[in-house]
């Protein structure tokens, strides 16, 4: 039996044609049928008297009384799929004939065409997806740069390059007080090229400049201008400078500018359109195309200034070249103080900074950051709660010499002689002073020593070298006699 829901319930129940015929059509509960979109038959049932046609549990049963009047309002309660219209009409007519109904009393059937909104939307889904994809690709090709990369940066985050920092901070004064220079007839520099080895802090210095000046900072990499589509590079250059002018005063930073700033006429194919040269030409035009009062300063970083195009380096484009070298011992100490504040130490950061600066000659800022991070990893690997000097020394040995070869086979007697000889050199008063020395083999293929960068007079250096030769010669002589 099919249960008719109460009038307050607006849910619809799907039934089969057999249930429709036996439990709705035969008792005479069907008021009319509406066929929607020639596929779904909606059954509208009439209200039956409670005494004869409906039990208290709302269960449909075959009444023995007369069929209720068609004038009773029908409500949509059930539906079923009809397959084809011809088959549905034929089966419905046969069922009513079998029930002995008069043709004038047949259940009326109407056909309607309804619009289902989600099906209509699905028709436009491929087109909408294609348009969205084209829009996304267009924005991606036109963009490529980020805005606001200098937020939260300042001079406190930069150390070890005081001269370069002082020179580049002049651009901050240019952006903050342009009238002060223009009244004297001075032209604000349009750009500066940051030159230096990798890891010396060129990008960090540019971000600090933007943070100190409080102006928008637009950053992009030189490789971001190059895409597989022709014309994307020049288009991105135009969009970059257009955005910079709209939010002027602002700073543009192009990292690794040598990717697009190479000397023209090299590496291209004859008779073809060199996308890199087109991008460089557009960059040259944009840099020399806006006035001195536009408030847009271009900074660029590279570690290969020798391959850049001469037109890019001339005054009026990159007016200044700021060299950022590796820090000296004082600069390394300042950098260590910055990174040591982020590590949980067993002592004050100033206790370690001077010692670590002496142990890391020739290290750049990125190398110093790696030392601090490696020391923290060594401490964590040793299940320590704080980082000590022993962890820093192990980290420096790991970075300079690589992993120690603990299982490397060797002659213990030879290793002993080598250790004694190096120990005598360490204790020798006239020998060059050393911070540390190791005979442990490593993946670098050698043992190593670290000496502080001291200048020795020629006479003292000669005397110390002679003493070392005498000590080593005496040790080798004793070793040869012991092997006989």
Element-level helix/strand string: EHEEEHEHEHHHEHEHEHEHEHHHHHEEH
Spatial extent as radius of gyration:
43 Å
Give me the CATH superfamily of the domain at 162-323. P-loop containing nucleotide triphosphate hydrolases
**CATH-derived topology of the domain at 162-323:** Rossmann fold
Descriptive report:
The chain is an alpha/beta fold. The chain has helices at residues 17-25, 85-98, 117-142, 162-168, 170-176, 178-182, 202-213, 232-246, 275-287, 310-313, 329-340, 349-359, 365-381, 389-401, 412-427, 458-483; strands spanning 13-14, 30-36, 40-46, 74-81, 109-112, 146-147, 191-195, 217-221, 250-255, 296-302, 320-323, 436-437, 449-450. Among the domains are: 7-47 and 74-130, 3-Layer(aba) Sandwich (name from scop); 162-323, Rossmann fold, CATH 3.40.50; 329-404, Helicase, Ruva Protein, domain 3, CATH 1.10.8. It is 43% helix and 13% strand. The strands form 3 sheets. It has a 6-stranded mixed sheet with strand order 6-8-9-10-7-11. The chain has a 5-stranded mixed sheet with strand order 1-4-3-2-5, covered by helices on one side. Strand 9 (250-255), helix 9 (275-287) and strand 10 form a beta-alpha-beta unit. The longest helix is centred in the N-terminal third of the chain and has 26 residues, at 117-142. The protein is elongated and about 130 Å long. It starts with 12 loop residues before the first strand and ends with a helix.
Output the keywords.
single chain; 484 residues; name from scop; Helicase, Ruva Protein, domain 3; six-stranded mixed sheet; five-stranded mixed sheet; ATPase_AAA_core; AAA+ ATPase domain-containing protein; metalloendopeptidase activity; zinc ion binding; protease
């Amino acid at each position: 039996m099919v249960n008719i829901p109460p009038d307050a319930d607006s849910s619809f129940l799907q039934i089969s044609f057999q249930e429709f015929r036996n439990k709705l059509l035969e008792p005479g509960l069907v008021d009319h049928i509406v066929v929607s979109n020639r596929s779904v038959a909606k059954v509208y049932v009439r209200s039956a008297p409670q005494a004869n046609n409906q039990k208290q549990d709302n269960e449909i049963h075959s009444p023995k009384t007369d069929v209720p009047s068609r004038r009773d309002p029908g409500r949509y309660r059930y539906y079923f799929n009809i397959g084809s219209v011809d088959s549905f009409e034929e089966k419905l007519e046969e069922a009513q004939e079998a029930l002995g109904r008069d043709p004038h009393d047949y259940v009326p059937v109407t056909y309607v065409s309804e619009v289902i909104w989600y099906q209509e939307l699905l028709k436009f889904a491929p087109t909408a997806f294609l348009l969205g994809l084209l829009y996304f690709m267009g924005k991606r090709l036109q963009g490529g740069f980020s805005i606001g990369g200098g937020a939260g940066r300042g001079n406190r985050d930069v150390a070890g390059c005081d001269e370069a920092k002082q020179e580049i901070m002049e651009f901050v004064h240019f952006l903050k007080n342009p009238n002060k220079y223009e009244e004297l007839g001075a032209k604000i520099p349009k750009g500066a090229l940051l030159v230096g080895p990798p890891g010396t802090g060129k990008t960090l210095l540019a971000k600090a400049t933007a943070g100190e000046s409080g102006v928008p900072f637009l950053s992009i990499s030189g490789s971001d201008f190059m895409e597989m589509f022709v014309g994307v590079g020049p288009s991105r250059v135009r969009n970059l400078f257009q955005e910079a002018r709209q939010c002027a005063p602002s700073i543009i930073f192009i990292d690794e500018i040598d990717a697009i700033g190479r000397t023209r006429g090299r590496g291209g194919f004859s008779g073809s359109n060199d996308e890199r040269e087109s991008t460089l030409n557009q960059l040259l035009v944009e840099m020399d195309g806006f006035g001195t009062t536009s408030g847009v300063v271009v900074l660029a970083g590279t570690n290969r200034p020798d391959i850049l195009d001469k037109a890019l380096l001339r005054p009026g484009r990159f007016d200044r070249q700021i060299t950022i070298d590796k820090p000296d011992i004082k600069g390394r100490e300042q950098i260590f103080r910055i990174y040591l504040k982020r590590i949980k130490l067993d002592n004050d950061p100033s206790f370690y900074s001077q010692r670590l600066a002496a142990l890391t000659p020739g290290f750049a800022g990125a190398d110093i950051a790696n030392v601090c991070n490696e020391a923290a990893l060594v401490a964590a690997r040793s299940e320590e709660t704080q980082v000590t000097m022993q962890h820093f020394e192990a980290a420096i040995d790991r970075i300079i010499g690589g992993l120690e070869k603990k299982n490397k086979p060797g002659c213990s007697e030879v290793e002993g002689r080598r250790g004694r000889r190096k120990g005598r050199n360490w204790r020798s008063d006239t020998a060059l002073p050393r911070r540390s020395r190791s005979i442990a083999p490593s993946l670098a293929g050698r043992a190593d020593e670290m000496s502080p960068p001291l200048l020795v007079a020629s006479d003292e250096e000669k005397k110390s070298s002679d003493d070392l030769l005498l000590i080593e010669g005496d040790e080798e002589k004793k070793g040869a006699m012991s092997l006989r």
